[in-house]
Specification:
The complex is a heterodimer.
Chain A: E1 4-7, E2 10-13, E3 19-25, E4 30-31, E5 36-37, E6 39-44, E7 51-55, E8 59-60, E9 68-73, E10 76-81, E11 90-96, E12 108-112
Parallel strand pairs in A: 2-12
Antiparallel strand pairs in A: 1-3, 3-10, 4-5, 6-7, 6-11, 7-8, 9-10, 11-12
Chain B: E1 3-7, E2 10-12, E3 18-25, E4 33-39, E5 45-51, E6 60-62, E7 70-75, E8 80-85, E9 94-103, E10 110-116, E11 120-124
Parallel strand pairs in B: 2-11
Antiparallel strand pairs in B: 1-3, 3-8, 4-5, 4-9, 5-6, 7-8, 9-10, 9-11
Classes of the chains: A mainly beta, B mainly beta.
């Protein structure tokens, strides 16, 4: 199975500042025939299902604010929030869908400092 | 509106069975692989399994933690996916979500789980 490891486990950032979350895959998730990384980022707020933010490692889902961005390729990925807003407080997960089981990272809890 | 609605959760004794349903609306259900993801209270997301589409022979794959005990099926005529859970253990206690793996129109490349239900709670306890 592909193991997804996020860092840090928790993060406190001041409003308006940048937040960065890392995700490392134990296996390359770059689908060579399409040159797309099968890596997604989700946001989960309390008592809500996850919400897709980023797919193919760097493509924002429709309706997601442009302060959210994703980068990386192969095995190392980053989710950045350029200017933290109060509504961004949540747990963030990366997930690979390159192969089954479609494993998730353990989650990163983002809070306001 | 694109929607997934789970039902069937509840309290069951260890060793018991339960069947969850996931009713889809607002999209062509038969075009999508359907997945189940669970989350124990205060814990992270765990992928449970998936069922592919008819052109892909309705192939199923499961997480090691549930293989041999859980079965995913679908009825495209009813726009519904199912999760049959047998030999339940206390560690299966969780909120169970159904979700679809979206496919980009051009090229048919998967791009992520873009629609999720609100979840249904399964509690395994004596």
């Amino acid at each position: 199975d592909i193991v997804m490891t996020q860092s840090p486990d928790s993060l406190a950032v001041s409003l308006g500042e940048r937040a960065t979350i890392n995700c490392k895959s134990s296996h390359n998730v770059l689908y060579t025939s399409s040159n797309k990384n099968y890596l997604a980022w989700y946001q989960q707020k309390p008592r809500q299902p996850p919400k897709l933010l980023i797919y193919w490692a760097s493509t924002r889902e429709s309706g997601v604010p442009d302060r959210f961005s994703g980068s990386g390729s192969g095995t190392d990925f980053t989710l950045s929030i350029s200017s933290l807003q109060a509504e961004d407080v949540a747990v963030y997960y990366c997930q690979q869908y390159y192969t089954t089981p479609h494993t998730f990272g353990q989650g990163t809890k983002l809070e306001i400092k | 509106e694109v929607q997934l609605v789970e039902s069937g959760g509840g309290l069951v004794q260890p060793g018991g069975s339960l069947r969850l349903s996931c009713a889809a609306s607002g999209f062509t259900f038969s075009d999508y692989a359907m997945h189940w993801v669970r989350q124990a209270s205060g814990k992270g997301l765990e992928w449970v399994g998936r069922i592919r589409t008819k052109p892909n022979s309705y192939a199923t794959t499961y997480a090691a933690s549930v293989k041999g005990r859980f079965t995913i099926s679908r009825d495209d005529s009813k726009n519904t996916a199912y999760l049959q859970m047998n030999s339940l253990k206390t560690e299966d206690t969780a909120v169970y979500y159904c979700t679809r793996l979206a496919v980009a129109g051009t090229g048919g490349y998967y791009y992520g789980m873009d629609v999720w239900g609100q979840g249904t709670t399964v509690t395994v306890s004596s």
